[in-house]
Amino acid sequence: MARIFKSPASYVQGRGVADEIGTHAQSLGDEALLLADDVVLGILEDGVLASLEAAGLTATAVEFNGEASEAEVDRITELAEERGADILIGAGGGKALDTAKAVRQHLGCAMVSMPTVASTDAPTSALSVIYSEAGEFQEYWFYDDHPDLVLVDTDVVADAPTRFFRSGTADGLATWFEADATARSDGENVVGGTPTRAGHELAHLCYETLRDHGVAAVDAVERDAVTESVEAVTEANTLLSGLGFESGGLAAAHSIHNGLTQLEATHDATHGEKVNIGTITQLVLEGRDDAFIEDYVDFSLEIGLPVTLSDIGLDAPADEDLDVVAEAACADDETIHNQPFAVTPPMVRDALETADELSQRVRESR
Ligand SMILES: NC(=O)c1ccc[n+]([C@@H]2O[C@H](COP(=O)([O-])OP(=O)(O)OC[C@H]3O[C@@H](n4cnc5c(N)ncnc54)[C@H](O)[C@@H]3O)[C@@H](O)[C@H]2O)c1
Ligand SMILES: [Zn+2]
């Protein structure tokens, strides 16, 4: 299998860049459509439309209904066709961006991805996670094309609730362990090849950046402040984690996340929060030494991330519930099979139980 690395064409990050979008998107088309929910439109609609118009583009907005569902994709596609849009700008969290990517695929036009929270590594990827209108995970849709431009305004990211920023850090921390497992097993990455050195090293840089800057960056975002650490972590959560997971590969942590979504009780936990339980469980599965896992749990607690099952809504889960998670995590098409050893549902269930007990002990000993 060939080594493959893919990425968006350009990435722009900094304070106030939302209001400079016209400069960066000018060459992409003439008729821009901004897709965002009511909260996000309230934050940036005026500035973004004014900047696009100042750059000579026609620009309008449409309100996103909040779910990345097929019905919502069809509704926006129809509307975008009526308006003759040739640049689709998705702004918001992972769901708004995933919807914009799907609409763009139907239209075959240019796309700008504008995350307004550093909550996931969705902004740079060429895939959407599609849900039912009721919010249940349905499937992944993969595309040939990445966003043409990813634009992140760090003022906006720092103003958003800190929980999003913490969650993105968890999504980013997982990236290295999963990319490394994929490399060790000579497994397949998310763009249909084996990992390049670039994909692997970007995942590693993501981890190092989050370990070096994560705690002070969260401190800053608690006060809505933008510091160099906030810039570093925003880039890690968004660009490094995005390129690292797609071109480096996913493994157990995200499969365990997908398994956890099977249980209704976890639905209030964010993507990144569930991923963190997946990461600790992956470390247990891999048989990492005690000090290593304890250090990871300790760092998670410093950032303010969940480490136990009850932290993500699973108080004393029944054995059958953990079996459901473990079975789903080990489905044939899951990335858990990128681990460099065969993984079975009983192994995942026992690792989940152990990770929970270990994390409780670390928390109590602090
Ligand atoms: N496609 C991919 O590669 C990929 C990767 C990771 C996660 N995902 C998907 O991303 C989704 C999760 O994304 P999420 O955690 O960002 O949540 P989300 O998209 O479900 O919600 C984000 C929320 O934040 C609000 N918001 C956005 N910007 C804000 C701001 N500046 N201030 C205040 N509120 C703001 C929005 O109104 C919305 O309610 C899941 O569907 C997951 O499957 C996709
Ligand atoms: Zn993720």
Automatic annotation (TrEMBL):
Its cofactor is Zn(2+). The keyword Zinc applies. Glycerol binds at D121, D171, H254, H271. PROSITE patterns: ADH_IRON_2 (PS00060). Keywords: Metal-binding, NAD, Oxidoreductase, Zinc. Residues 8-154 form the Alcohol dehydrogenase iron-type/glycerol dehydrogenase GldA domain. Pfam families: Fe-ADH (PF00465). NAD(+) binds at D37, G94, K95, A96, L97, D98, T116, V117, A118, S119, S125, L127, Y131. The keyword Nucleotide-binding does not apply. Binds 1 zinc ion per subunit. One of its GO terms (molecular function) is glycerol dehydrogenase (NAD+) activity. It is an enzyme of class 1 (oxidoreductase). Its EC number is 1.1.1.6. Belongs to the iron-containing alcohol dehydrogenase family. This is Glycerol dehydrogenase. It comes from Halorientalis brevis.
